[in-house]
Amino acid sequence: MHTQIFKTLGKVAIASAAVLALAGPASAQTAAPFTIQIDGSSTVFPISEAVAEGFQQTTAGRIRVAVGESGSSAGLRKFCRGEIHIADSSRPIRSSEMATCAAAGIQYVEIPVAFDGVTVVVHPSNPIRSMTVAQLREIWRPGSDVRNFNQVGGPNLAMQLYGPGSASGTFEYFTEAVNGTARSSRTDYTPSEDDNVLVQGVANNPGGLAYFGLAYYEENQSRLHAVAIDNGNGPVVPSQATVRDGTYAPLSRPIFIYVNAAALRRPQVQQFVQYYINNAAAVSERVGYVALPQAAYATYLQRAQRRQVGTAFGGRATIGASIEEVVGRRLVQTPVSE
User: Can you say how many angstroms the Cα of residue 213 is from the centroid of all Cα atoms in its chain?
Assistant: First the structure.
């Protein structure tokens, strides 16, 4: 799978597509293809883009899907303004975003689609092989003066940091998991909402260090080295296996799509979301993430079909939660507006 090509195609599609009304009568039909608008997390982007490509092949051009990657926070802002049908997010919707959506009359169906392991990477020539969470905190805490890998037990090598921008759900999750407070981070690093920029930064710099979703490491293993993380029980290398069995902690997390509940009245959107859920397991594994149990996808399919709105996460992150704990959470529902 070529993530960079998918990103370019998604951006071109978004640039050329008009912003569509999200709700409206399900019976409304026009000669032009219906376009489903998705934006948000760069972590979820590989899944949504692959699903969109597969889905469009089944519709004979009747339905198009435009997928962007402005970051979880930016995507959810667009979602709560009614500008897109679906928001990709690498974290649960926040309380403030819940309030914004409510004020705008936007209700959402929450669908966890896979599990990810936030992966810390260095250049392959860097001999450092593991770090403790405490060492990561020394590097990334606000005001950190760590400038060389020898300050955290590594080689005498000047450190150049790359990381997600402030609109990223990965930024929020990592900073809370490592520094104890979401969005609390040093600022003297090279930020980007495009994970391929972070990949390039480390791949081209012997002193580079970055963090991003597991799929981007899986796609670039020949150019990067994944650092094992020690959370007190010994170093654990990020992989689909260690995310699945819960040993890669605290950097494993669920990733989501949020669907406009009113838009689900449109048969085109309902058809796409059902296709997404039915294919999420296979696509997630293929791009480098971890599928959820099949029973969970069956529950989420029913949730979409019935337009059951609300969240199971109460506006908070899921630091350290296992797959079983996440899929076992109960949805706190609110009535769907008709």
Answer: 8
